[in-house]
Amino acid sequence: MAFRDFLRARFPEAHAPQVPEVAPVASSLTCVESLQLSRGAITEVTAASASAGTGLLISGLLQREGPCRELTALVDGSDAFDPWSIEAGALERLLWVRCRAPDEAIRATDLLLRDGNVPLVLLDLQMQAPRAVQSLPSSVWHRLRMLAEKSGAMLCAFTPVRTVPCARARVRLDHRFGLADQFQDRSVLLRSLPVQVERQRQPLVLPAAAKAIA
Question: How many whole angstroms separate alpha carbon 66 and alpha carbon 180?
Fold first, then answer.
């Protein structure tokens, strides 16, 4: 207790409320803004079913507006991405990595984060079997989090069930689209896509002196 009081007195800024560094993802879409993507962290998106809107949300991220229209990598864990659903301008800024198994997708994500030249990496495992995704060791996710933190990249993982133990934020898609929705404009469907925020953690940012002691 005395040691904790000493640290609080010696490094008061380390114990002050911290505001997470949220990437400026400008968008007119509420579902995209609700993700609150943070640099150096993982955001997990889970979906109740394949028709819950994962593909729509990915297209919204790829077509985001503003100064954050940077190069984006989509690690497609099931080779299910439809490039025809995205406008040509967004495709010019897209690196599409086609995989067929969770371990392949994890290795590709690892390489992209180590490279450090892609600001936003989307890891889509939503179409994989829940058991296959949950069988990934937790150390895998902690390694990806550390790589994202080191490179300052944003990692958004799409999973069929809650999987990422170290996710700073987690949102859930519960909406179910019907057959009639296929005739709706995608932009209209995106604007009506409900996103439920389940977790939103604030990062603890230590001052340089405290880091040196640790």
Answer: 32
DSSP assignment of the chain: -HHHHHHHHH-HHHHS-----B---B-S-HHHHTT--BTTEEEEEEESSTTSSHHHHHHHHHT-BGGG---EEEEETTS---GGGS-HHHHTTEEEEE-SSHHHHHHHHHHHHHH---SEEEEE-TTS-HHHHHTS-HHHHHHHHHHHHHHT-EEEEEESS---TT-SEEEEE-----GGGGGS-HHHHHHT---EEEEEPPP----HHHHHH-
Per-residue pLDDT of 59-103, as tens digits, reads 888 877 654 457 899 999 999 898 887 888 888 889 999 999 999
Query: Can you give the pTM of this predicted structure?
Result: 0.74
Q: What domains are there in the chain, each with its CATH number?
A: 31-202 (3.40.50.300)
- Among candidates 89, 96, 55, 56, which has minimal Cα distance to 72? 96
